[in-house]
Amino acid sequence: MLSAFKYRIYPKPGQELWLKRSLLSLCELCNGLRAKKIEEYKQHGISLTKTGLRALALEERRHRPELQTIYSQVVQTAADRVHIAFSNFFEGRARFPRHKHPRKYLSMTFPQSGFKVNPQRGLYVSGMGYVRIFVHRPPLGRVKRLTIKREAGEWYAIFITEGDAPVKQPIDTVAENRIRGADLGLEMFTTLDNSESVEYPRFLRRSEDKVNALQRRLAHKKKGSKRWKEICFSLARLHLHVKRQREDFQNKLIHRIFSENDVLVLEKLDISWMLKNHSLAKSISDASLGRFIRKAIFKADMLGKHFIAVDPWGTTQFCHNCLAWIPKGLAEREHICPSCGVRTSRDLNSALLIKRLGILSSSPSDGGSSLAEPGPLPSLRGMVSLGAEAGSLRF
Ligand SMILES: [Zn+2]
């Protein structure tokens, strides 16, 4: 499995200048290749391939001295970016590739070589020399490639490493109290089936308020002016801060859940529901829920634990205990079951139902289904008997 290890680097002024110039040249190169690809197609009906783009990039490098200071494989990966941008468009994943502004071209990749780490002298990067690196934790696995990235005025080295995933305990031997069902929500970030609930920390909201305030100030400034640029930079730094706070919160939460449990069961995020309930606040929190789920899948593999996704259909509308149909609106926070007398919070009921579904699916044949895997998810459909009126309802 691949993992990423990110370290801050501290280039000297001359090195920073080289980095900035190189990114600018690579950006120009990409824009040139993009234009070339479009032109070739218009004039001769030929679509330049990945190899063709790479050859063109190396040809450019031969004539332009500023590209010669950049490692040749880095120049090739810049050409690959153009190729990927076009494939993403042709395969329906993205818009037509646009002319890229240098402000948005922020990284360069060394796919195999051209760099090495020396414990005494720091990180050696071809073309730049030794740069000071802060290794706050050792990387694990074999280093496959290096990306140097600029983020709001700071520089980072990101190593992609390949290591062996730990062996997982067979899922059918996991004790029931080591299986956790979790309901993800808007008010409470998550509610676990052991009635623990976790809220988004307040400090995160405070930062988000600051972002909004800066955004309002920015709206009154003239675009491109000195003050506008200043606010843009503070905004970028603050966005980065919020992103890191959120990542840190989610990472720690997942780590804690997996250190106390062996299986985590979550609902698969329902895209159609998200599109129907479109609003800014929702889309922000949905995006962060999506990231949380992806992190959970990744961490499960990394730590040798299991992740199970279940169908979200009806998980708020049935009783976890007797599976009776208890319809409730979004505002109803209580779950009171007239059939069996159970009384819990709405979110806890969902978490318990999600866990129940997860246990059903934890047969040996199903070694922790991932979201990417197609096929039927464990679902309440078919488990519950609905009245005629309920059957026509959409959840
Ligand atoms: Zn009940």
Topology:
Blueprint lengths: L1 E9 L2 H32 L5 H14 L1 H4 L3 H19 L16 E4 L4 E4 L3 E4 L3 E6 L7 E10 L2 E9 L16 E6 L5 E3 L4 E2 L3 H18 L6 H35 L2 E5 L3 H6 L3 H24 L2 E5 L23 E3 L6 E3 H16 L26 H4 L4
Parallel strand pairs: 8-11, 11-12
Antiparallel strand pairs: 1-5, 1-7, 2-6, 3-4, 4-5, 6-7, 8-9, 9-10, 13-14
Features of this protein?
395 residues, alpha+beta, seven-stranded antiparallel beta sheet, five-stranded mixed beta sheet, 10 helices, 44% helix, disordered C terminus, binds zinc ion
3D architecture notes:
With 395 residues, the protein is an alpha+beta fold. It has two domains: 12-132, no CATH class; 171-198 and 261-391, no CATH class. 44% of the residues lie in helices and 18% in strands. The chain has ten helices and 14 strands. It has helices spanning 13-44, 50-63, 65-68, 72-90, 202-219, 226-260, 271-276, 280-303, 346-361, 388-391; strands at residues 2-10, 107-110, 115-118, 122-125, 129-134, 142-151, 154-162, 179-184, 190-192, 197-198, 263-267, 306-310, 334-336, 343-345. A seven-stranded antiparallel beta sheet has the order 2-6-7-1-5-4-3. It has a five-stranded mixed beta sheet with strand order 10-9-8-11-12. Strand 4 and strand 5 (129-134) form a beta hairpin. The longest helix is centred in the middle third of the chain and has 35 residues, at 226-260. The structure holds zinc ion. The site of zinc ion has 8 residues, from loops.
